[in-house]
């Protein structure tokens, strides 16, 4: 069974371009909140925010006995890297991000999670003709390859996303991410499949999982949901109930069943502990429905490919 | 071509943030007004109430010194402190009262400074999940509040700016049809729309059609000019940088409608110099308008009257492009 980790950034103050929600809180308070979220097994830590005092961090991990699923390396920072870091036209910025990523990999090795996830949000363009895409991919190959070579035991997961804050990100879909990782040839470069990002990129999450796994690039999974139009980071199953069941069923078949799920679920006006407890509960409920699927029956149904039989079977499980 | 009058949204000349990043340094009202005055083509300014109106005499001096007109008072009814669960439609009567009061205060200031126009984008009024709202009572409250604002004083126009989503997955006022519904339900002549072109694209509309519908009901009071990638997001990009043909159609339509409102620049410069970004935004609109005149608005209208055959229309519209050696023309 996969363990459940909350991304630390979603435990305190959150903002969007219109509103500021929840109060900023200390790292210690974030740990205290996770401890109150029923069903949570650990955290996905954010770099650099959570690593200002590594000794305090280690003390908190020890004190609360919480696991670490991954370190989320922030490649967008206020006041810098606004035109991308991994694909910046400035060599110094590309070197800077690789250096910083190497430091984060060292932390990941030290904490034993051996996994970095990063969402390259500023690696993209707003307008036509803004960016030389060919050169941008070359830069991305150069920077990600250099980071991956630092420690092959640490996996770097690119959390692909179609857009926001750029009009179009360079790595926006499962296919683009798989192809890119394969172009680099680095075996420790793969994908974080964020279900919300996949859904609003008009993907079927189970299909994306299968493709990434075929390319040996399915390294990590983030759970959340949306209405298919934008990245609202809502509770899993709020919109795509059967898609989640199909995803969980597929992940088990692919062997992603003794790992971690990370949660980017935004609480906005809701109580953080209550909202994330609901995220844990809904995940386990959806898994429970998945458990009711008889693999032999499903295998037969998928061989027949007759939805007139498959959907009634699924609904008979409720 | 109709009178192209450009203004700028002063809020976008200072510190902006999105979910992920902050852009631009914080700039005082003085600094922002001074930058707007240096922006080519800009004669008017849209300011945020209450934030920009803390010192009214100073503001009046700044506007006079820089020869800028206040064209719109943008009333902010979306801060999380008061409007976490809605503003015009909030279930809490105190929150609704506060939203209405802010808008009424904005109207008084708009009248005092001669703008006679307030605009608001009711983004706190929305929802994320199925079953989150009782839509009937929520919409009832929204329309009652809108009526109270419009009825407060008839000499100031009250513009509603629709937007399909953000920060909620659904905003109540998410398309041009709903604005027209609110206007018809309120039934007063001084309530209308601020047509934000990017929001219309995000709502999968053709802005020219939205403009025509609003104008047909005398509800087109103001526009925000910008563009986006058309994927449903509202990235507030330079006008015409993506939807070039739709922008030409919009300007053609505004001209036919005799639009006499301001064109309010509403672009987020992010990493760009705001003066350069807003100058180019106005320049793009002016050049597109000049291009329409070069193509011939009467010729376009005549083709539309004939039934608007797209093959003929685009042959005409693209006539400004370089001629091909082997070219034949349909017209």
Characterization of this structure:
The complex is a heterodimer of chains A (318) and B (331). Helices cover 44% and strands 16% of the residues of chain A. Chain A contains eleven helices and twelve strands. Chain A is of the alpha/beta class. In chain A, helix 4 packs across helix 5. The mean pLDDT of chain A is 96. Chain A has helices at 27-36, 54-64, 91-111, 133-150, 174-184, 195-200, 205-214, 241-254, 272-291, 295-304, 307-316; strands spanning 3-7, 14-15, 20-21, 42-47, 67-73, 115-118, 124-125, 155-159, 168-169, 189-194, 218-223, 260-263. In chain A, helix 2 links the parallel strand 4 and strand 5 (67-73). The longest helix of chain A has 21 residues, at 91-111. In chain A, the strands form three sheets. Chain A has an eight-stranded parallel beta barrel with strand order 1-4-5-6-8-10-11-12, surrounded by five helices. Chain A has a two-stranded antiparallel ribbon with strand order 2-3. In chain A, strands 7-9 form a two-stranded antiparallel sheet. Chain B has 331 residues and is an alpha/beta fold. In chain B, 43% of the residues lie in helices and 15% in strands. Chain B contains twelve helices and twelve strands. In chain B, the strands form three sheets. Chain B has an eight-stranded parallel barrel with strand order 1-4-5-6-8-10-11-12, surrounded by six helices. A two-stranded antiparallel ribbon of chain B has the order 2-3. In chain B, strands 7-9 form a two-stranded antiparallel sheet. In chain B, strand 2 (16-17) and strand 3 form a beta hairpin. In chain B, helix 4 (93-112) packs parallel to helix 5 (135-152). Chain B starts with 5 loop residues before the first strand and ends in a 14-residue tail after the last helix. The A-B interface holds A 15-21, 76-79, 82-83, 121-122, 126-128, 162-165, 167-168, 226-227, 229-230, 232, 234-235, 238-239, 268-269 and B 16-23, 78-80, 84-85, 123-124, 128-130, 165-167, 169-170, 228-229, 231-233, 235, 237-238, 241-242, 270-271.
